[in-house]
Amino acid sequence: MSFAFVESNTTGTGPMFVRAALERGLEVAFYARDANRYPFLREGHLGSVEVRQADTSDVEQLTRTCESAGVTGVCTASDVFAPLVASLAARLGVPGPNPPAIIRARCKLQQRVALAESPWVPLWSCPSTAVAAATFAARLGSPAVVKPCDGTGSLDVRLCATSREVFEHFSELSARRSGCGHVLVEEYVAGRELSAELMDGHCFALTEKALGPLPWFVEIGHIVSHEAMAENPTLPEVAETVARRLELTWGGAHLEFRLAADGPILMEANPRLAGDFIPELVRLARDVDMIDLHVGRCAGEPPSGPVTSRFVQAAGIRFMEPELPGLIDVDRRESSGMRVVPYGEFPRHVAITHTYRDRLGYAMATGSARDSVLVRLGDTPARVRYLAEGRGVTH
Fold first, then answer.
1. How far is CA 192 from CA 207, 211, 228, 234, 249, in A?
2. What region does 287 belong to: left with phi over 0, alpha with psi -120 to 50, or beta?
3. Which residues pair with 124 in a beta bridge?
4. How far apart are CA 200 and CA 251, in angstroms?
5. Contact criterion met (CB below 8 Å) for 29 and 5
6. What is the DSSP letter of 253?
7. What is the pLDDT of residues 67-115, one digit of tens each?
8. Is 315-390 a domain of CATH 3.90.1170?
9. If we measure between CA atoms, which residue out of 296, 157, 160 comes closest to residue 218?
């Protein structure tokens, strides 16, 4: 079977998707505009993958290319390319999700409209001007969140404390006019943040999230455990209902919620499996490989059905991130139940962007329960070490 990947995450789960296809014995081709963006292709760790340069923004040309290559299955690990791959699958007549549903899920404005009559969305507006954005924020009477409708990785998502800040951030995002160009202004929902990890519309796990300091919304860690499911027994059903309303019931989906005082509020719904190694945490905690299941769906396997396995342990990840720019080294020491993976060579000079790009590496741990994982990951921030002569230097 000729199986095609169209672009990917450059790190994290990106190579894991390709590896899952290879382990299934599939003949894998990787289509990319610039394959040099993918270190895992250059390093040759994945074995036999045919890399093919292609204009991955042109679905018609890509369809012709895949037809001539006899492609019988397509997949991507990137939510940016999820709409294109859904359309490509439909054109090729191979398994894939409903293209309109994927397009809708990629746009937070369309998500809000589709769920307008539900109790699971925050107060929101999609203003056409910065003045209208500031006016709506003033009516909210509280801090507001300003974010692009089709962003990813929490990029450009900002908590604005005043109407003036809303005006300025809205103006900045609107001036860029990237993607669909729409910008949302929403009420700020306080409360714990969890995500629901779904396959074919069934919730397999809940992930508890740790976020960095406001006004940014950078995720710095995740834990998957039985305790999260036990303490939030209604959230899986809410997530499954939201997924059905958004028609995200084919393959993987990743829904993020804030637990407000009166119930869960949807922050966003993603038409793909989670990033940040969350599928690996699910595999470690529940012995269910969601990446393999999704690749199997793309290769023609039937729906997976609800998960039946029990949690065997808890698993978590904490990213190493600098608090200040400067010359930095990281502590690579590992211990029982934990591994540490730095990104790149150290020591090196780093800057601060207040995005996921600040990550210097991660520590991943398992344990019998959530608390034991938290203990093992507790020293992760201290693993970032500033060299005295470089502290505060921005190179």
1. 11, 10, 11, 15, 26
2. left
3. 186
4. 5
5. yes
6. E
7. 999 999 999 999 899 999 999 999 999 999 999 999 999 999 999 999 9
8. yes
9. 157
Say what the pTM is.
0.94
DSSP assignment, residue 335? Answer: B
- Which pair of structure tokens corresponds to residue 195? 């995500």
Architecture of domain 123-187: 2-Layer Sandwich (3.30)
Taking the C-alpha atoms of residue 214 and residue 143, their distance in angstroms, rounded to an integer, is 11
Which residue in 276, 256, 259 sits closest to 268, CA to CA?
256
Place of tokens 């997530």: 239
Beta strands of the chain (E only): which ranges? 2-6, 27-32, 49-53, 71-75, 124-125, 144-148, 158-160, 183-187, 193-199, 202-211, 219-224, 252-260, 263-270, 314-320, 326-330, 338-342, 348-350, 361-367, 384-386
Q: Is the pLDDT of residue 179 over 60?
A: no
Classify 47 as helix, strand or coil.
coil
Instruction: Give all strands of the β-sheet with 252-260 in edge-to-edge order.
Output: 263-270, 252-260, 193-199, 202-211, 219-224, 314-320, 361-367, 338-342
CA distance 143 to 270: 25
Report d(CA 155, CA 276) in Å as an integer: 15
Select from 3.60.160.10, 3.30.450.40, 3.30.470.20, 3.90.79.10 the CATH code of 193-310.
3.30.470.20
3-state helix, strand, coil in the chain (%, to 5): 35, 25, 40
The residues spanned by each domain of the chain are: 2-94, 123-187, 193-310, 315-390
348-350, strands of its sheet edge to edge:
348-350, 326-330, 384-386
Distances in Å between the alpha carbon of 108 and those of 55, 66, 132, 195?
26, 30, 19, 16
